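thought: fold this chain, then report.
action: predict
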Amino acid sequence: NDKNVFSDLCHNLIMQNDITDKSYNLITKPFPWWYSDIDSSGITENRIVILIKNEIINPTVDSFNELKKNHNGLNIKLLEKYPTDYIEEINELEFDSDDLKLILESSVLGIPDKKVFYESCDEEMINSNDNVLLLLSNYIIDDVSFNFKTSTKRKILLSDFIPESNRIKIFNKNLSIVDSLFIESFIKTLGN
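observation:
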C-alpha cells in the first residue's frame, strides 16, 4: 500500500518545523494530495500561506474553521483561493465581522462573490463593525449591486465613523428609507 505510505510521508513533512520556508515550499509544491485533517496550530502562518498556494489544504468547512481557530484571516485566504467551493457550502460557514471585512477588502474576490458572502451574513453582525460599515458605505456610493439591508444603510447614515461626505451622498441616494424623525437624527450627527 505504497499510496498510503507516501500520503503519510507527505502529511508528516507538512508538520515539520526543521526546514526553511523556501525548502518547505519546494517540498510541498508537487504533493498530489489535499488534506482536510491538518492540525494548523503547530504550523506557522507563512507555511499555511504556502500550503494554500500549493493547493494542499482541501477547501472544506472543517479546513476553513481550523484556520479560523488557529490563524485568523488565513481562513479568508483559503476562501479566496476556492470561492466557488465555499459558495456551495455557504450555509455551513459562519463568518464574523473580521471575516466580512477581509472579504470586502479582498482584491482577489470579484463583486459577485463578495455579494454572495455579504448576503449570507447576519445583519446584527454586519452592523456591529465600523470598519465593515465604512467599506459598505463605499460600495453604496459606487452603486455596487449588493442587496443592502435598510437597517445597515440607516446605521451607516448615523455613524460618526463614516465621513460626512459619504453619509450625505448615501442619504441623497436613499431618500426612500428615511422619515422626518430619521432626518432629524441624521442632521444632528452631521455636527455644526
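thought: worth noting. The chain has 13 helices and no strands.
final: C-alpha cells above.
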